[in-house]
Fold each of these.
Amino acid sequence: MNIVALILMIVGALNWLLIGIFNFNLVTWIFGASSVVSIILYVLVGLGGIWGIVMLFQRNVRKTELMHDAE
């Protein structure tokens, strides 16, 4: 699940990079502006980002637990 979320975050980040630099939305270009596939892809990228937040906090919790165990 972590790998899938990371791939989705990378896809989203690259798409935002293209939008920011070239004003070009790759997802819209491939699938259409309001197509079901593009909407699903946007939702999946968003869920991947939420999962990334969870991974970030899990990492911080583990780090904190390791620091407490070392004391």
Amino acid sequence: MAVDNVNHPSHYCNNKAGIEVIEVTGNLNFDLGNAFKYLARYKSKKLPAEDVKKAVFYLNHFYANIKKLCKIVVCSEEDIPSLVKKMERFCEVEDVPCIRRAMESITQAVLAELDHLDHPLPLLSESEWNITIADLKSYAETIADKKPEDFNG
């Protein structure tokens, strides 16, 4: 079977969760969708550390604009439980604590929106957020010379 690099590239669905990443990211706002995408696929990309840094960029952009956001989920309310199950599956199989924590934070944001909380994003306190971002940046530095085969070999 030929590889379809346009519609289904291997790095989109070659993961331990067994879920194509777009099944999650297509249901999130731009920043969270991109952050989740980079966190879910970094081990399969040519420059893994760069993808972790891209996730940090989108998470920081999201956090800086949190008060301006109306919604973070773009799917119907009925579809959110299925979305959360897929997100939780990615979290379950992620073996790097800082990556898992960031993915869990994004998942918590979706759950908070589902629950219609007054402040819809009880993700993390500012200090916890800063620790998560610092941990992601530090992790990116430790994998700066890694290639996909180093993770999947």
